[in-house]
């Protein structure tokens, strides 16, 4: 038994979500980005979650989908979807797309009991790596590992950057991003120009003030300008102190065929296993990694295209597994 596109919905409580939108496009699901007030500002959370919950419930009751995908975090989005499926008396089922932060970020630890309750009532829970899949299964919930889908970014205009080696650091000023390490690393590399993305209002003023002359803070960019910046780069850097993190920035680099510099962690070594330089999050480690990028740029550029093909092949297998879950949900 198949499910029509009109019977599937993907709910994300965010103003943008490239992963949700890519999953939706690949699986033929209507994507709904539901968001009020300012993004990732905890002070607004109690107010915007109420508005988003009401919006979500009204949408679901109006559309009456039989399969609902929902992005976690926040867990409250999944809770609202669970309430909707309960109101249908089993006619609708839901699948949680659990991001790494939902399971590992300290701010969600206090909601773990609620998380377990909701996950155990889902058709399945998608996680980005095997370690998190096993964690969810230990709670008694069904779970599958799906790092993809590969992001599709169409060809387009590239931004004209400096005459130096242009490196873009995809950054959000999150606590797990070792930005001060990067600034120290590039301070004595005049042949490198580093472009750092992200809303500078979230940064410490002292950090911005001590940036060397070969660093440009781009501020938060509209999507078109952001992609132009990435297309203009020689390579892309994405660093994290948090293990088991699937880096969207790294996936964007793969989509654009840009070599990657990222943190030396087991999961990142496994997922970005070619076309990538893995470094310790230290000034010297990052500096040596940039030198290696410059030296091996041609080889790494060829390898990243090979990695893109490998990810696309893996996705074709995993997506079939997801479609089987959707069919299962429709027949129960």
Quick structural overview:
The protein has 332 residues and is of the alpha/beta class. The protein has 13 helices and twelve strands.
Descriptive keywords:
single chain, 332 residues, alpha/beta, Rossmann fold, 2 domains, six-stranded parallel β-sheet, globular
Structure description:
With 332 residues, the chain is an alpha/beta fold. Helices cover 45% and strands 17% of the residues. The strands form 2 sheets. A 6-stranded parallel beta sheet has the order 2-1-3-4-5-6, with helices on both faces. Strands 9-8-7-10-11-12 form a 6-stranded parallel beta sheet, with helices on both faces. β10 (235-238), α10 (248-256) and β11 form a beta-alpha-beta unit. The termini are close together.
Q: What's the mean pLDDT score?
A: 90
Strand content: 15-25%
Radius of gyration: 21 Å
Q: Name the CATH superfamily assignment of the largest domain.
A: Glycogen Phosphorylase B
Count every helix, treating DSSP H or I runs of 4 or more residues as helices.
13
In total, how many domains does the architecture comprise?
2
Q: Can you count the beta strands?
A: 12
Main β-sheet, spatial strand arrangement: 2-1-3-4-5-6
Largest sheet, in brief, is: 6 strands, parallel
Q: Kindly report the CATH topology of the largest domain.
A: Rossmann fold
Runs in which pLDDT lies below 50 for 5 or more consecutive residues are 1-5
Distance between the amino and carboxyl termini? 11 Å
CATH architecture of the largest domain: 3-Layer(aba) Sandwich
| CATH C-level name of the largest domain | Alpha Beta
Structural class: alpha/beta
Shape: globular
Helix content: 40-55%
Q: Write the element-wise H/E pattern from the N-terminal end onward.
A: EHEHEHEHHEHEEHEHEHEHEHEHH
């Amino acid at each position: 038994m198949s499910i029509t596109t009109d019977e599937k919905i993907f709910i994300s409580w965010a103003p943008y979500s490239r992963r949700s939108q890519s999953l939706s496009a690949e699986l033929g699901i209507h994507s709904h980005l539901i968001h009020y007030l300012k993004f990732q500002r905890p002070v607004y959370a109690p107010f915007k979650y109420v508005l988003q919950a009401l919006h979500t419930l009204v949408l679901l009751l109006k559309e009456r989908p039989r399969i609902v995908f929902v992005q976690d975090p926040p867990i409250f989005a999944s809770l609202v979807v669970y309430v909707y499926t309960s109101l249908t008396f089993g006619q609708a089922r839901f699948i949680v797309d659990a991001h790494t932060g939902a399971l590992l970020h300290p701010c969600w630890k206090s909601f773990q009991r609620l998380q377990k309750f909701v996950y155990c009532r889902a058709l399945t829970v998608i996680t980005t790596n095997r370690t998190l899949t096993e964690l969810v299964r230990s709670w008694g919930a069904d779970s599958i590992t799906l790092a993809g889908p590969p992001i599709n970014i169409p060809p387009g205009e590239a931004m004209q950057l400096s005459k130096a080696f242009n490196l873009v650091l995809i950054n959000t000023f999150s606590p797990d991003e070792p930005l001060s390490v990067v600034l120290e690393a590039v301070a004595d590399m005049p042949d490198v120009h580093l472009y750092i993305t992200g809303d500078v209002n979230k940064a410490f003023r002292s950090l911005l003030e001590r940036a060397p002359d070969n660093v440009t803070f781009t501020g938060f960019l509209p999507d078109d300008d952001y992609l132009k910046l990435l297309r203009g780069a020689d390579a892309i850097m994405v660093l994290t102190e948090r293990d088991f993190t699937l880096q969207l920035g790294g996936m964007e680099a793969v989509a654009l065929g840009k070599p990657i510099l990222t943190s030396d962690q087991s999961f990142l070594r496994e997922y970005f296993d070619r076309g990538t330089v893995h470094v310790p999050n230290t000034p010297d480690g990052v500096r040596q990694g940039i030198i290696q990028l410059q030296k091996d740029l041609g080889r790494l550029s060829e390898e990243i295209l090979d990695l893109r093909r490998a990810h696309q092949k893996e996705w074709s297998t995993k997506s079939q597994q997801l479609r089987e879950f959707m069919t299962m949900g429709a027949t129960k």
